[in-house]
From TrEMBL:
It comes from Pichia membranifaciens. GO terms for molecular function: metallopeptidase activity. It comes from the Eukaryota. Residues 110-144 form the EIF3F/CSN6-like C-terminal domain. Residues 185-202 have a biased composition (Basic and acidic residues). One of its GO terms (cellular component) is proteasome complex. GO terms for biological process: proteasome-mediated ubiquitin-dependent protein catabolic process. This is MPN domain-containing protein. The lineage of its organism: Eukaryota, Fungi, Dikarya, Ascomycota, Saccharomycotina.
Length: 202
């Protein structure tokens, strides 16, 4: 891997390694010893990928040193914090500036597109709302009209029933009157025949 790195980036020099931290870890000293095979004094760069700082780059740089204890006991290795500054080369600054301009243009287009999409979506939702409102009003109007029509029919039906009863009663009375006269005539027939008999006897 190192040989491939030298072939591709011949002008660059390996100075250390990094991890995403956010703090020093227990095995960092062991990994740092491995990197000594590539560079005598490797630097450890910790990059806090979860930082909320939008101004400074969240990095901390460390170098392993031998710490000599005052009590005369055996020394041990530890990390010493080094101040660090991250800067870009001229070519990188130009590329970064162009990238920022492109990003700004893309963001502007995205913002206008999002605004247009929101306006179109709001218009479509308004059309759906108005359509639903009109359908509800029409259905409510039809319901009221049906209720009014049914009420009129019920009132007309309740008015026609007494008229039919009166007409039926009058018809029954009219039929009963001739039958009573006929009965009276039938009763007079025997009396007339009796008079005839009396005349004969005289």
């Amino acid at each position: 891997m190192m040989e491939m790195f030298k072939k591709i980036n011949a002008k660059e020099k390996l100075i250390g390694w990094y991890h995403s931290g956010p703090k020093l870890r227990q095995n960092d000293l062991r990994i740092n010893e491995v990197f000594k095979t590539f560079t005598p004094n490797p630097l450890l760069l910790i990059v806090d990928v979860n930082s909320t700082d939008k101004i400074d780059i969240p990095t901390d740089c460390y170098m392993a040193i031998e710490e000599i204890k005052e009590d005369g006991s055996a020394s041990e290795k530890t990390f010493l914090h080094y101040p660090s500054i991250i800067e870009a080369e001229e070519a990188e600054e130009i590329g970064t500036g162009n990238a920022n301009q492109v990003d700004a243009q893309i963001y502007s287009h995205e913002k206008r597109l999002a605004t247009a999409f929101n306006v179109k979506t709001n218009d479509e939702l308004m059309i759906l709302y108005v359509s639903s409102l009109v359908r509800s009003i029409i259905a409510f109007h039809d319901l009221i009209s049906n209720k009014i029509e049914n009420r009129k029919r019920n009132e007309a039906a309740s008015t026609e029933e007494p008229m039919e009863e009166i007409a039926a009663k009058e018809g029954a009375d009219a039929e009963a009157a001739p039958s009573s006269n006929t009965g009276a005539g039938d009763k007079e027939t025997p009396s007339s025949s009796k008079n005839v008999k009396d005349g004969k006897q005289q």
